[in-house]
């Protein structure tokens, strides 16, 4: 009856408290899992599924050895699972009945401190969401590895909430069990992270100091949920959590997840790698802390001009001081990841080697300060204000720890001689003992005449004298006691040897014990300096990012952007920061962008592959680079400060979402049209391509008109509908531009140069030829094109017709039918009554009718016609 043993009862009781996690149940040297946990873990970890008990009562079981459990746990966490670690909390020898066990910690993707899921240059965020009312949400986030804590309130719709949650590095979301499942579902569609539940929102008084600066109860409540969850899962002090910062999304340029992805800000669209992204270009950081910060900056460009200028001024300073900057960066390369180190100090998981690295990093502070004093003197105080406080810690670490301590903290070898008298005494005893043994070896060699005699040590037999078989005959009878026989040698002991051994081992055991105790004292002392270490980490990461911006700006000849109060864009010789690095040197064709009154919108036409979307993305990337405080690739740049950037570019990534490409296109366009302001930037690439020609063209035109008349955002709109270029006649702020191409000897050459005016044709067939489609196909296409061009007069849709066309097209898919019906409509005579019926039919919202309503409606139409 395996299920009813006392131990299984204990297991089931504990498991009931941790239903959403694998329960790693400690049994001797293994963590065991049972029932469905075992089945799933065996599958996910590819380990053997065994069983416990007999016959029908047999229950599935699998286990991982305690010593190598870390790697298994990491793998499960990486897959988004949680693990409740259940340990024996009393000595099995003392236990009466079943050994007492308790969950000592819950490991989750958002609370990991180490392992494969923690990337050096990426944050690992745990986010808690609290819904206060329909339009009001609180979001709290922390990265436990660094102690960073932040909260915000979002007054708005769920899209904004999702955007915030989905910013990169979010690994886990904590919500209350009562949260509307639809809300959760929508979040998970966009941001598929592990979800956990926490209903408590009381803030424990130990943490009141963290929320001092928060000015609303809702902010505190949002953070308290996060903290409750941490307390419940981590079951230990969280001393390294930093003051909670209140951030406001309105202080940053807004971009939805699609836009970030489309613009390839932090990873490439196709390969999902950093290479090929904007981040790869502007991240020239040399520390992990800087690497994480630059990623955060790219995801949240600033909108406050003064703050942007501050960063740019520093970039200028770093750029102007080439030698000092490069020397400073060389120094930074040796600075350890202080932010994460602070986390490990707080958790008590730091080892002596890391503390020595901490010491070396802290010792660099005066030098760093000196460099900053030379490069940007006014920033010295901001970055290095409290340096003196740390001297005592450096001194302690210097006195207490050897220069190259081992990773293990329990095997000794960490503490410097002279630091602690008692330790030195044990050390002497052990040293003397070893000295005595070395002398004994010498003496025995001489006395026995066995030159190869040696004294060795192993953990099982302790010290022994080893004599090879060939020399055994030289030993006087009874000189040693025989202990162990090997193939080629015999091992012996003597009573004095064992006596000394006891002395040495005793001293060593005491040494290890004492070293550990002394180390713990040092480690605890380091905890008192956490705040300072974190401040220094902040300073270093900022310096690192800005010095990196300067380095790339210099290397790639970027310029400092200026900001236009009149919302004008004036870019001379702008380049796409990523594309220019991947094509052959010197081959990139720089382009101007001019957008101001009279040309607030650019309608871009040109052959496929000419560079339309490169041109569009280039503008957005330049704006983002400017607003994160970096120089930009161009000869000169004047830009407005954009509050938001919206893009609809490319469709490759929509397939996985389960929605039709066209639907996604429309949803994103809706989002841009409803959220954008006149201070926003909208990029729309080939809108309307996903439906029939007339449908698509009508939509494209209506969208352009709406942006032009209502939204007024700066907009780039690329299209292959040449008919739309006529809009410049009626829309005063729309300007046609095209990417030029020339035909040379029957082939097309893309010049990648964007100039005013419309393109004369699409060159699609030439691109097809380039792609080496069978000539039969391209030739036939040429013929058809000619025929189509001859009949364009009938096909061309006049601006005023488009709205009608749009409605009619609800019933049609193919352009041919559309034309037919359109023609018929203009030729067939329709009576007044019939027209009335048709109008009624067209205006009816058919999709929102019940079947009964539909029948009644048809009945009414019939009546009107009879
Ligand atoms: P489109 O959107 O017009 O189809 P893309 O913008 O995708 O074209 O550009 C196609 C290719 O042309 C790009 O992959 C790039 O290699 C090249 N290209 C685009 N713009 C430029 C430019 N300004 N200078 C040099 N090459 C360019």
What is the fold's blueprint, element by element?
Elements: H1 6-17, E1 22-27, E2 30-34, H2 35-45, E3 50-52, E4 59-65, H3 69-78, E5 83-88, E6 101-107, E7 125-133, E8 136-143, E9 148-155, H4 158-165, E10 170-175, H5 181-190, E11 194-197, H6 217-234, E12 245-246, E13 254-255, H7 257-262, H8 278-282, H9 288-299, H10 305-320, H11 322-332, H12 338-347, H13 352-363, H14 365-375, H15 380-383, H16 391-400, H17 421-448, E14 454-458, E15 462-468, E16 481-485, E17 489-493, H18 495-527, H19 530-555, E18 562-563, E19 569-574, H20 579-582, E20 591-595, E21 601-605, H21 612-628, E22 636-639, E23 644-648, H22 661-675, E24 681-685, H23 693-711, E25 714-718, E26 734-744, E27 747-756, H24 764-770, H25 775-790, H26 792-795, H27 802-808, H28 815-827, H29 832-843, H30 851-865
Parallel strand pairs: 1-5, 7-10, 9-12, 10-11, 13-23, 18-22, 21-25, 21-26, 23-24, 24-25
Antiparallel strand pairs: 1-2, 2-4, 3-4, 5-6, 7-8, 8-9, 14-15, 15-17, 16-17, 19-20, 19-22, 26-27
Bound molecules: adenosine-5'-diphosphate.
Adenosine-5'-diphosphate binds at residues 579, 583, 587-589, 591, 606, 608-614, 752.
């Amino acid at each position: 009856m395996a299920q009813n043993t006392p131990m299984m009862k204990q297991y089931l009781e504990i498991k009931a408290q941790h239903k959403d996690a694998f329960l790693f149940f400690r049994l001797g040297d293994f963590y065991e899992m049972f029932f469905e946990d075992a089945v799933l873990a065996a599958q996910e970890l590819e380990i053997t599924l065994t069983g416990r008990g007999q016959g029908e009562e047999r229950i599935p079981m699998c286990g991982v050895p305690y010593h190598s459990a870390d790697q298994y746990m990491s793998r499960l966490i990486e897959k988004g699972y949680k693990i409740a670690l259940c340990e024996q909390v009393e000595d099995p020898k003392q236990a009466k009945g079943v050994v007492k066990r308790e969950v000592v910690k819950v490991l989750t993707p958002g609370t990991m401190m180490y392992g494969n899921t923690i990337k050096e240059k990426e944050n690992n965020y745990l986010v808690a969401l609290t819904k206060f009312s329909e339009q009001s949400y609180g979001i709290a986030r922390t990265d436990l590895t660094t102690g960073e804590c932040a909260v915000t309130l979002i007054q708005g719709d769920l899209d904004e909430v999702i955007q915030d949650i989905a910013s990169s590095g979010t690994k886990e979301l904590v919500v209350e069990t009562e949260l509307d499942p639809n809300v959760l579902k929508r979040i998970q569609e966009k941001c598929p992270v592990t979800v956990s539940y926490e209903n408590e929102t009381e803030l424990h008084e130990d943490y009141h100091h963290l929320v001092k600066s928060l000015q609303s109860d809702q902010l505190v409540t949002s953070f308290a949920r996060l903290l409750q969850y941490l307390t419940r899962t981590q079951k230990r002090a969280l001393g390294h959590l930093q003051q909670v910062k209140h951030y406001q999304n309105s202080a940053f340029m807004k971009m939805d997840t699609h836009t970030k992805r489309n613009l390839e800000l932090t990873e490439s669209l196709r390969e999902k790698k950093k290479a090929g992204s904007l981040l790869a270009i502007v991240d020239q950081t040399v520390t992990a802390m800087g690497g994480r910060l630059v990623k955060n900056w790219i995801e949240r460009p600033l909108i406050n001009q003064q703050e942007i200028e501050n960063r740019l001024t520093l970039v200028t300073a770093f750029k102007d001081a080439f030698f000092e900057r490069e020397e400073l960066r060389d120094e930074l390369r040796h600075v350890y990841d202080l932010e994460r180190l602070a986390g490990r100090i707080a958790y008590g998981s730091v080892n002596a080697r890391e503390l020595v690295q901490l010491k070396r990093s802290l010792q660099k502070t005066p030098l760093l300060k000196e460099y900053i004093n030379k490069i940007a003197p006014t920033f010295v105080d901001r970055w290095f204000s409290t340096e003196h406080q740390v001297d005592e810690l450096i001194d302690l670490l210097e006195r207490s720890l050897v220069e190259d301590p081992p990773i293990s903290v329990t095997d000794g070898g960490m503490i410097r001689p002279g630091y602690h008298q008692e330790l030195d005494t044990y050390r002497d005893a052990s040293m003397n003992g070893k000295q005595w043994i070395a002398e004994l070896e010498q003496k025995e060699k001489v006395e026995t005449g066995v030159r190869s005699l040696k004294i060795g040590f192993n953990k099982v037999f302790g010290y022994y004298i080893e004599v090879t078989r060939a020399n055994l005959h030289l030993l006087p009878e009874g000189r040693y006691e025989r202990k162990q026989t090997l193939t080629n040698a015999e091992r012996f002991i003597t009573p004095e040897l064992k006596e000394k051994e006891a002395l040495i081992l005793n001293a060593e055991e005491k040494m290890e014990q004492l070293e550990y105790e002394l180390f713990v004292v040092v480690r605890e002392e380091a905890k008192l300096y956490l705040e300072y270490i974190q401040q220094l980490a902040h300073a270093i990461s900022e310096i690192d990012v800005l010095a990196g911006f300067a380095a790339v700006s210099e290397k790639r000849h970027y310029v400092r952007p200026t900001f236009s109060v009149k919302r004008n864009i004036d870019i001379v010789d702008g380049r796409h920061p990523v594309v220019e690095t991947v094509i052959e040197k010197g081959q990139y064709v720089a382009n101007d962008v001019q957008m101001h009154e009279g040309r607030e919108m650019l309608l871009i036409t040109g052959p496929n592959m000419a560079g339309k979307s490169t041109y569009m993305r280039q503008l957005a990337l330049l704006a983002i680079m400017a607003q994160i405080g970096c120089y930009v690739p161009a000869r000169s740049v004047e830009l407005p400060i954009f509050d938001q950037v919206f893009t609809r570019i490319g469709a490759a990534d929509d397939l996985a979402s389960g929605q039709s490409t066209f639907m996604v296109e429309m949803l994103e366009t809706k989002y841009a049209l409803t959220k954008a302001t006149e201070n926003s930037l909208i990029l729309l690439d080939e809108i309307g391509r996903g439906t029939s020609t007339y449908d698509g063209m009508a939509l494209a035109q209506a969208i352009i008109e709406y942006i032009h008349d209502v939204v007024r955002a700066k907009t780039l709109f690329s299209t292959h509908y040449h008919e739309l270029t006529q809009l410049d006649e009626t829309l005063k702020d729309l300007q046609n531009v095209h990417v030029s191409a020339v035909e040379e000897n029957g082939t097309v050459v893309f010049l990648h140069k964007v100039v005013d005016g419309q393109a004369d044709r699409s060159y699609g067939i030439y691109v097809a030829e380039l792609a080496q489609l069978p000539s039969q196909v391209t030739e036939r296409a040429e013929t058809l094109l000619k025929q189509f061009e001859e009949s364009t007069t009938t096909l061309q849709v006049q601006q005023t017709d488009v709205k009608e066309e749009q409605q009619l097209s609800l019933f049609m898919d193919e352009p041919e039918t559309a034309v037919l019906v359109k023609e018929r409509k203009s030729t067939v005579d329709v009576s007044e009554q019939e027209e009335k019926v048709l109008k009624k039919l067209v205006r009816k919202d058919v999709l929102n009718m019940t079947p009964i309503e539909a029948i009644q409606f048809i009945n009414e139409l019939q009546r009107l016609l009879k």
